[in-house]
Amino acid sequence: MDNKPIAIGTDDFKEIIETGSLFIDKTLFIKELIDNTSKAICFPRPRRFGKTLNMSMINYYFNLEYKDNTLFNGLKIMEQGEKYLKEMNKYPVVSLSLKDTKFDDYEGFIDNYKEIMKTLYSKYNYLLKSDKLDETDKEDFLKIIRKQEDILLPNALAKLVGYLNKHYELKVIVLLDEYDAPILYGYEMGYYDKMITFMKQLFVTTFKDNGNLKKGIITGVSRISKENLFSDANNINVYNITDVRFSEYFGFTQEEVDEVLEEYNLSSKGVEKWYDGYLFGETKIYNPWSILKYLENPKHTLQSYWTNTGGVGLLKKLVFRMNDNSTILNDFHKLLETGRIEHLVLDIFMDLKNLKANKNTIWTLFLLTGYLTPIKFITNPNDVSLKISNLEVRENLENMAKTWLNDIKEDEIDFAEILKVGDIDKFKNSFKSIVQSGFSYYDVPKNQEGENFYHGFVMGLLYDSTNRVFDITSNRESGEGRYDLVLKPINNSTNNAYIIELKSATRLGLDKTIENSFSQIEKKGYKETVKEFNVTEIAIAYIGKKIKIETR
Fold first, then answer.
1. Out of 67, 418, 539, 548, which residue is the most buried by the measure of CB atoms under 10 Å away?
2. Residue 474 pLDDT more than 90?
3. DSSP code of residue 207
4. Is the full-model pTM beyond 0.85?
5. How far is it, in rounded angstroms, from Cα 458 to Cα 441?
6. 211: Cβ contacts below 8 Å, ≥ 6 apart
């Protein structure tokens, strides 16, 4: 018997069922939604963890447009009794996604949202003939379709819910997918405050002050709360990845993965290390996108399939260009070295206003976007340890460090290979060239915090997840002190090892700072950690992007 096809690229529940594609049965999610008494619920989860498919499934179950459909035959929800079956195809459902609302300015977002509302309203053109809507309702309806009045936009979703309620005399279910995509992008592009004002009005009119609403279901990556987006709409119940309830409905559980691997006659060897490792509440979760891609691959190769584009630009900017937070880069280095970061205070409410000043918010964003996961179930949000979820995520993080450099260097220069063969002159010249041609003067502070910037830059230059030459450690104790960076050869690939010391020269000048760096390496005995190799000492002194490099 042939295996079921894998429906990669579709999040449409109906298409998956009708084509006989593999479907991991998550329909008990519907049962829990019915049992939950909250008027509105938000589920923040990483990208590609099944949010959109779940929303599609919910739409087909509740939407009266699909009355008498047989899509759910044989699925778990059909065995739960009359209480749940009588809710099937009973309500008007409005479904909306903001996933693709990413624009360079607020005006671009508004123009796009007008088009989204026009398309959404056009689905319900029959309401213009309804004798239950008055003429004012129909005039406003037409203004939205004709994209005439901006002032109606934040309330347009709530108004549509009201029109449907009048026509059907039934309360309406609203599905809002990826609600925070325009907010996070607005933060990155500088129109965050305008987005918050817009979304705040949308949330209050649709999900709080709306007697026409049966239930609202919202998904996103993060929970934007401290900016009053959720505090004004305080009836929204949020189930984060740290909560126990609903934890098994986004991503695949161990039992589900075991069953599907057996169905496809595949070994579980290596699958856990590559795609498991997430902890949602107390539930062990696999990345569903990666599992499906692994099953689809004819050779079933264990490799990275998940590239989480959501928030990557923001994460990269915060980690590598955070000149006002002197600890974030060192924490990032330790994360790459050890696979974990400990004793954090989680900021689940995502106070983006203080993002640059609060490293806990940044690491929480890493958690919510799927790059990190709790080491154990979180009982105290004020003392949380996170880890890199699996091999796939580690590769993504290392590639993030590498691709950042593409904004700076024009030619692909393999610095690890240069140092492997001991070409010091080429290292010095290439390093200086990149700094001089690629760094903005304002990227690099002249004070002590600039060391973190250069530190991160050097780490990024040398990291290579596929062909690692050196084991790179930073700020470790050696001899009687703590070195900046040590490059120790891996697998006898070379006999060359390096000690790199980075220092601000603002106070003493470039020459004196270089001398002090070499003196520190000698006095503190940094060579002890690599004494069995051919060791080269590299001293880098800087004043902004003006640098001097010497070696011994």
1. 539
2. no
3. I
4. no
5. 18
6. none
